Fold this protein.
Amino acid sequence: MAGTAEKIGWVRAVAGDRFASLDLNVYPSGVGVSVTDNALAEARDAAAFLAGRTAVDLTAEEVLESPHIFIGSLSSFEEKFLRQREELGINSIMVGEMGPLDGVVERLAGR
């Protein structure tokens, strides 16, 4: 989350007044979307999978916080996507096949 916030800060600084009109997108990186009630266990598995494949080793908690990894319940996705919009300005989320996240789309429609 902190790394993404830093990068968005760079964009904000360069864009100036135009920043509000930009669309900022995130997408799942490294591991697929997983709708689960056992997010911490899956995040541990994802952290182990990503270890050595990226320049940074992540804890399970960092995996769950990452704007680029989507593991959790529908409620947690709703909270995460709203937080990303409010704190980072991310207003576009690419998830691939919608099936598993249909419920999140319904919950966030019009918000």
Remarks:
- The beta strands are 25-26, 34-35, 71-72, 92-93.
- The mean pLDDT is 88.
- The CA atoms of residues 9 and 23 lie 14 Å apart.
